[in-house]
Amino acid sequence: MITHVVLLKFKPGVSADSAAAREAHAAMCALPAKVPLIKAWKCGFNTTPDVSGWDYVLVSGFDSREALEAYFDHPDHLKVVALWEPISDLAFGDLDG
Questions:
Q1: Average pLDDT over residues 5-20
Q2: Which of 43, 58, 80, 94 is the most exposed place for a label (fewest CB within 10 A)?
Q3: Mind listing the domains of the chain with CATH numbers?
């Protein structure tokens, strides 16, 4: 199992209540139904009120490195990325096992 973790930080002027953030969140929540490669999925707005914290968190799981890499190129994933790119900065990491 590969665990893929994504952290998103809103750009200035964007908040969790904005229409763009809500649209991106809804699209993110819909991905597991569209991408069968996803084996585990939990996403949402950060609930810890700290200015150092990231605003949005995704923790996902894939059966293999190959499945994760195929997910990166999946058209539905790319559509979601296109929603997040204008409103946030991204950090991510992957864990084997």
A1: 97
A2: 94
A3: 2-96 (3.30.70.100)
